[in-house]
Amino acid sequence: MEYGGPEALRIVELPEPHPGKGEVRIRVHAVTVNPTDILIRNGSQAERLKHLPPPYVPGMDAAGIIDEVGPGNDGRLKVGDKVIAVVTPLSPHKGAYAEQIIVPAASVVLAPSKASFAEASTLLMNALTIRLALDALALQPGRTVAITGSAGAVGGFAIELAKADGLRVVADAADKDRELVKSLGADLVVERGDAVAKNIRAAVPEGVHGLIDAALQHEKTVPAIADGGGLVTLRGWTQPLERGLSVHPVMVGTALTDTARLERLRDQAEAGALTLRVAKVFPASQAAEAHRLLEAGGVRGRPVIDFMDFSPR
Questions:
Q1: For residue 191, which phi and psi values (nearest 5 degrees)?
Q2: 87-92: Cβ within 8 A, 24+ apart
Q3: pLDDT of residue 312
Q4: Residues 6 or more apart from 103 whose CB is under 8 A from it?
Q5: Do 55 and 41 meet the contact criterion of CB atoms below 8 Å apart?
Q6: Coiled-coil stretches, from where to where (predicted)?
Q7: What is the pTM (predicted TM-score) of this model?
Q8: Segment 151-163, tens digit of pLDDT
């Protein structure tokens, strides 16, 4: 096991897993490639993984079919169900890049019925992150929230979930992405980049009540926020701020077994309130290419890896 670039990804044989109490096994059809997967692969998360024996398996989003149910389940899930799951690579069961995965039943919900496996796999991890972000800001309907990185997968969900909460949305975009961002529901679109706070203030002179920083611009976004407002950061960034501003570092790992939140997101996708965007589907043998595509930047939607090119055990 070596960390490194996309070429560090390897296909390995592992023993067939079986679920324990309160767990299910999923025959994986599709997994989404997220930035967290790259951090697992390149060694940025090595300290957090050192308690586990190698090989280390990335992946936090999976869609597939339940093929075994462990004891102690409540009957909500059964063999044959088409499901989606949010997974942690930090658990003894490892991540989602596998033919079969073991997941706590609480982290699994039925897939949106009209979505393909590839589409369904893109929902939970990114949308759950934004659900936590909006809950942390706790803005009342009619308030204004700004979103950076709004054309990306996380930012797109941020626009749609904020609109579903009754918020006014100011989103950033490059010229080529303006129509996409408008189509997702943004009320105002400003130019992205290092001057994003200035651009937001030009559109909303009084400042926004909250800001979700999906572009990881951190302190560059702070001037856009009105006194007493809140900033949500997605990689743990936090600094003392003036003007009564608060910082909310959101970590999706705190809510992986929050079934009620997961079901709410599934229902919103089922109703068409959330757009499931697949950039490109790769066979599992080309997982490295999926990582290269994401790392190159500018991807609209998420790369997805198809695990059905392997024969089931």
A1: -70, 135
A2: 87/59, 87/60, 87/61, 87/62, 87/256, 88/60, 88/253, 88/256, 89/36, 89/40, 89/45, 89/49, 89/56, 89/57, 89/58, 89/59, 89/60, 90/48, 90/49, 90/52, 90/253, 92/52
A3: 42
A4: 23, 24, 25, 26, 62, 85, 87, 93
A5: no
A6: none
A7: 0.95
A8: 999 999 999 999 9
209-246, pLDDT tens digit by residue?
999 999 999 999 999 999 999 999 998 899 989 999 99
Both structure tokens of 157: 């969900």
Residues 6-123+276-309, CATH architecture: Alpha-Beta Complex (3.90)
Q: What is the residue extent of each domain of the chain?
A: 6-123+276-309, 126-253
Sequence length of the chain is 313
- Does CATH number 3.40.50.720 belong to domain 126-253? yes
Is the pLDDT at 126 greater than 70, yes or no? Answer: yes
What is the per-residue DSSP string for 25-90? EEEEEEEE--HHHHHHHHTTTHHHHTTSPSPP---SEEEEEEEEE-TT--SSS-TT-EEEEE--TT
Read off the pLDDT of residues 42-58 as tens digits, 9 standing for 90 and up. 999 999 999 999 999 99
Question: The tokens 């007493």 sit on which residue?
Answer: 228
DSSP code, position 177: G
- Residue 195, both tokens: 């001057």
**How many CB atoms are closer than 10 A to CB 39?**
16
